[in-house]
Amino acid sequence: GKYKTPADFSKDRVEVITRVAYLDDMVLSLLQRHLTLEAEDRLLSEGGPMGTFVLRAKLCLRLGMFSISFYSMLKALAEIRNICAHDKNNIEIFKMDKTKSFVNRAWSSLDKDFQFETQKEVKDRFFHIITVMTVELVDKLNKVEPAKIKQERYFQF
Length: 157
What we know:
There is one protein chain. With 157 residues, this protein is mainly α. The chain has helices spanning 11-34, 53-62, 68-86, 97-109, 122-143. The protein is 56% helix and 0% strand. The longest helix is centred in the N-terminal third of the chain and has 24 residues, at 11-34.
């Protein structure tokens, strides 16, 4: 198959990749703030044991920072982003069953105060859901306490 360049991707695909990458960066920032990491630690680095969006989101889930449903939404977004980034076909991302299914599930779980009547199209709802998730992550980031390395009571090394 022919390799794609960014110019070959539709504006929608590029926007999905960019917005989900921003969520990925926010999850990374949340963990960096919560964990005590040295500069040489590769725990969260690309290629490290927790170097992917989904693994970092799962770590947040296991640390009690995310609900199962929020983690599931991030995982689904990562899958949609990967399709946008790696599929060599000329896909219409907002017509795909996977995207429509995600939007339907996420929209129905969204607080009614955040469901706007003007947003009826899959694309509009998709980006609105990401916006609400971004606000949720900003809120979590503002509340997390920076981690500190604790001193042991009986040992001083």
